[in-house]
Design brief:
Helix 4 runs antiparallel to helix 5. It contains five helices and twelve strands. The longest helix has 30 residues. The strands form two sheets. Strands 3, 4, 5, 6, 7, 8, 9, 10, 11 and 12 form a ten-stranded mixed β-sheet that branches. With 253 residues, the chain is of the alpha+beta class. It has two domains: 152 residues, no CATH class; 54 residues. Helices cover 29% and strands 27% of the residues.
Amino acid sequence: MLPCTQCGNTVVVDDGQSYVRCFNCNQMAYAANNQLVPYLRLSPQIDLTEAGATMRRWFASEAAPAGLQGVAMMGQPKAYDFMFWSFSGGNVGFDRQVMVPAVSTVLRELYGLSVPSHFINPDAAIEVEEEAVVPTVGRERAMAQAGVSGGENVQAWLVRVPLYEFPYQFNGRAFRVIVDGLAGQCLVDRFPRKPVSTWLVFLLLGMAAFGIEGWILWGNGIGLALVYLLTAVPALLMTWLVMKRRREDRGDG
């Protein structure tokens, strides 16, 4: 038996039971490690149309390559819920909720999601039926991933967050933009790179600097070596970045 996280009433948890409901206040909770964590399915605060407008604003922003909005081939958008651990208090404060996926996922853009705390509202949540999905990421591990600390001062929730996913293709490669259905944030992890022309200009300028330095310091071996050393490090780094970006644009990396 454990106390309800909402009203304090005693809740009976059977062996092997992952989710329980308080018969006094109807709050659903997740049971693990002899603790109850409140479990909510959060209501969408924006609809698919509004999420699409957020996605288009990202397409038109400086973060996206120029012309992406007019060239990308859009796929069929979809809406779904995703399970997160949500934390407030401790070193992150109570104004925001820091979220970490509660189940393993390849969607890297979902890591680091954060929303204002007023979105975690039990009174506005959708009624949750019996849940078949259980977290594969434990609470302590999720806290470590989010950098959350503070012991008993940390408030933890298990929540299902509404998401909208917009797939698209650009130069024959598949990408996606995910918009969270609470605060309307655009979550992007992998997307087409901007052209590398700017990087090439810096690379050419570095090569020109090598030539000028050699002409000025010709005959001064030690001075030439020191100046070349100082110039070589950023030039080699710039070369590596240009080559890396070109491989990514071709889909090799």
